[in-house]
Structure formats: C-alpha cells, structure tokens
Design a protein that fits this description.
mainly alpha; globular; Cytochrome Bc1 Complex, Chain D, domain 2; 5 helices
Length: about 140
C-alpha cells in the first residue's frame, strides 16, 4: 500500500477518535443509575434519555460516519482504503449473530476487543452507559 493512500485514512481515524469538548455546564453530571426526584417521578431521567439519544446521533455522525457512512452501510469516505471493510449495519445475518453486549463492547473498546480489526477504534471517553446503549440502538436501527 502506498503511503499517500494511508495518510488520509490516518487523518480521518484520528479526527474520528478525538474527544468531545467538555460541557459548558457548571452543574455536576448525575451519576449513572441515579434519578432526580421530581413530582412527575423520573421526568429528569426521561429527559436525560432524550439527550442521550441526541448525543448518540451526534457521536455517530462525527465518529462513525467516516467509515460506516451516514446510513450505516459501511461506505463512508474512509472506507475505500480500509481492509477489512467497515461493517454494513444493514446485514440482518450479522444482527442475528450478535447480542447487544457485543455491540456495546465494540463501541466502547474497539474491534480488537472482540477479535476484529484494530482499525475500528474504541471510544474510551464514552463513560455514560446510556449514551453507549443509544449508540447500540442506533446501530440496531439499521437492521433491515
């Protein structure tokens, strides 16, 4: 492989792995598994779930799309020079062959953590299990 073909892939991989900027809030983040008591019960938890889904979509767009493509077909702009090719999330056989914990492990720790390509980077900065679960839900949503 020529060096000139490797450099754009490395640049995209590094860009996809960059940590997000810290939140501008002065308030402490609630710890996973804790709920804020409200008159409506767990209204705060429901709102946090919506925020987590929006955050997951943003993470997918910024970190996953370069390789997996915006529709999860494995056809992102960086995919042409990758071997093996990124996973096509529209493959029903793949969805049937793995469980949710497997997807979440790949999201958090990368391909090498499950014996797959180390070119699939992990996301060690994602410490919110709700966001990781929302990313898994997003990946599962491509199953057709």
């Amino acid at each position: 492989m020529r060096i000139s073909a490797v450099i754009p892939v490395l640049v995209l991989a590094v860009a996809a792995c960059k940590k997000p900027a810290p939140a501008d809030s002065d308030q402490a983040e609630p710890q996973p598994g804790t709920a804020v008591a409200t008159a409506g019960g767990t209204a705060a938890a429901a709102a946090a779930g919506g925020d987590a889904a929006a955050k997951a979509k943003e993470i997918f767009a910024n970190r996953c799309t370069p390789c997996h493509g915006p529709e999860g077909k494995g056809d992102g702009p960086a995919s042409a020079s990758l071997n093996p090719q990124p996973r096509n999330f529209h493959d029903p056989a793949w969805h049937a062959s793995i469980d949710d914990a497997y997807i979440e492990k790949i999201i958090k720790f990368g391909g090498a953590a499950v014996g797959k390509s180390p070119a699939m980077p992990g996301n060690p900065d994602l410490n919110d299990p709700v966001v990781i679960a929302e990313l898994r839900t997003l990946v599962r949503s491509f199953n057709n």
